[in-house]
Fold this protein.
Amino acid sequence: MVYHSLILGAGQAGLATAYYLRRAGVSFLVLEASNAVGNSWVHRYDSLRLFSPARYDALPGLPFPQPPESYPTKNEVAAYLRQYVAHHQLPVQLNASVRELTRGADGVFTVKTAHGEYRAYRVVVATGSSFSPMIPPVAAQLADSVFQVHSRHYHLPSQLPMGPVLVVGAGNSGAQIAAELACSRPVALSEKDKPRFWPITFLGKSTVWWTDKLGLLHAATDSWAGQLIRRLQEPDFGYALPRLIKRGKVEEKPLIARISGSTIFFTDGSQGQYRAVVWATGYRLNFTWLQVPDALDEQQQPLHYQGISVVPGLYFMGLPWQRARSSSLICGAGRDAEFIARDLLRYVPIPTTSAPTINRVSSVPHTPGAV
């Protein structure tokens, strides 16, 4: 069988795209690497909450089942994604980790997975922006006696040995983890720049509400606002960490200069010894399995315009700043999915839920990647 579309990844980006394909009545399948929808949220640190209220956390066609001004936990997000699949009856194949994606001379894509091979006229890569944990090479210099873990695999304080902890990276994950650990042990936070802290709420409204009303939440990548935001450091939400810093519970440190055994030397000449290190150092997009000529640039990153690949029939979803500030956030998944689906459904022979036909959406303006 040749599907109209395959969607790689059953996270927020993939499921939002699946919603629009289900509405269009085309044949498609969502391939998910894990054994359950929502696992990418379940496996994150236990205290994680979204900094956006529930009213901003819904995907198209289903409200988020929490009070609009509440801040969902990671498990509530995972449960919502599973509910979303059931509610819209989206076809998801679990345990289907992608090993290779190729495109034949006939323009049909073949996806090889641990579960088998699948073919389609269209492929949406929705594996997300948080793909492979990135740990700096200097980590290899740490003594074996020092426990180290990436924030992707950190869950709760008891996972770490008691004693001083260094958290490397002051983004939202690093800030929240440092604040959590400071309740039970000495914590130092290594940061490239001084973090900017924004309140969760301001004048009775969530900060996300304010950014939405000011046109910043969904600021387009190529807009003046988008370009300005990209030049600025991303803010950390909440004031728990700055309060702990002020009280001396968290010590600020600059970047790591070098490591010798269990001693870490910093660029300001100071040093410290730690029982554990948490690397909150972000993620690296990994597309080694994408074996389609011209799909990636020299740095092995996607060549695309707003998610539409230069390769006909290939699309991306959930990339940072793909179309807007919100592209990699749950609140932006629906907007980007609708845009991608409109292009994806143009002028292609498609197997439908009934008889094959030609889908033509003449009202959609031409965009790169459309056939």
Observations:
- The mean pLDDT is 88.
- Residues 2-131+285-359 form a domain with the FAD/NAD(P)-binding domain fold (CATH 3.50.50.60).
- The radius of gyration is 22 Å.
- DSSP finds eight helices and 25 strands in the chain.
